[in-house]
Amino acid sequence: MTDEQSVNDELKDLDDDSIDATQARDATQALAAEEQASEIASFEDDESTASGIWNRLLSGNRRFSEGKMEHPNQDTVSRETLVEAQNPAAAVLTCADSRVAPELVFDTGLGDLFVTRTAGPMLDDAVISTLELAITQLHVKLLVVMGHEHCAAIEAACEELDELVERTETESGKHAETFMDDLDGIIEASSSSILREVGMSVWQARMAELTTNEEYEQVHIARIIEQLVTRSEVIRKALAEEKLMIVGARYKMSNGLVEVLSF
């Protein structure tokens, strides 16, 4: 064997060793990534966590949308088991619209959800106290604030807001553009709860140059969540201690799916 051949063989062996080392490193990294993904998925599927509970609700919603509902916890045994106590997985604040029933939309049963419903939805002291009870006494880890498309409360708020602007123009003799900055106070002083609670959301959306009911619905849910955090020390404390997760959502009647809102 010539010296040149010997050198080439040694270089080849070195290359093979490098390839083996690279492959081993890549395999190790891939395995670590797979294990990490598995741990994350396991955490998100763990129904003892807020994320796991939310994923279970979304799975139920997919079944509802596809017409494959399982109707869990709706038998006699479930009813009798719940006589002495309840242990709901989540609290849901949503609209009173007859077409929006969280227990059906999320394919849940008796004792699964602690549901509070008002038009809009709207907030008052009773609603906040109800949700605080769910957090302090029932220890729910997830609060879903859910609006929906074709919301009659949003539509009514739009009409009342338009009427308010027109009436203010007439009474003041000024064009709307001249008192836009003062309209917040006028809305807050209104005797109409729809205008105060829902109309303010529509107004804020319009000030941000948003124009569709879908956008108004999304802004309203964001504002409701903001108001909950602002007005409730219990909710603020639970969030700060990571004992509660709040999710904003919107139910689409057209396909039965719940979309997650990002703010």
TrEMBL record:
<dbReference type="GO" id="GO:0004089">
    <property type="term" value="F:carbonate dehydratase activity"/>
</dbReference>
<dbReference type="InterPro" id="IPR015892">
    <property type="entry name" value="Carbonic_anhydrase_CS"/>
</dbReference>
<dbReference type="GO" id="GO:0008270">
    <property type="term" value="F:zinc ion binding"/>
</dbReference>
<dbReference type="InterPro" id="IPR001765">
    <property type="entry name" value="Carbonic_anhydrase"/>
</dbReference>
<keyword id="KW-0456">Lyase</keyword>
<dbReference type="GO" id="GO:0015976">
    <property type="term" value="P:carbon utilization"/>
</dbReference>
<keyword id="KW-0862">Zinc</keyword>
<feature type="binding site">
    <location>
        <position position="151"/>
    </location>
    <ligand>
        <name>Zn(2+)</name>
    </ligand>
</feature>
<feature type="compositionally biased region" description="Acidic residues">
    <location>
        <begin position="1"/>
        <end position="19"/>
    </location>
</feature>
<feature type="binding site">
    <location>
        <position position="148"/>
    </location>
    <ligand>
        <name>Zn(2+)</name>
    </ligand>
</feature>
<dbReference type="InterPro" id="IPR036874">
    <property type="entry name" value="Carbonic_anhydrase_sf"/>
</dbReference>
<comment type="similarity">
    <text>Belongs to the beta-class carbonic anhydrase family.</text>
</comment>
<feature type="binding site">
    <location>
        <position position="97"/>
    </location>
    <ligand>
        <name>Zn(2+)</name>
    </ligand>
</feature>
<feature type="region of interest" description="Disordered">
    <location>
        <begin position="1"/>
        <end position="22"/>
    </location>
</feature>
<keyword id="KW-0479">Metal-binding</keyword>
<comment type="function">
    <text>Catalyzes the reversible hydration of carbon dioxide to form bicarbonate.</text>
</comment>
<protein>
    <recommendedName>
        <fullName>carbonic anhydrase</fullName>
        <ecNumber>4.2.1.1</ecNumber>
    </recommendedName>
</protein>
<feature type="binding site">
    <location>
        <position position="95"/>
    </location>
    <ligand>
        <name>Zn(2+)</name>
    </ligand>
</feature>
<dbReference type="Pfam" id="PF00484">
    <property type="entry name" value="Pro_CA"/>
</dbReference>
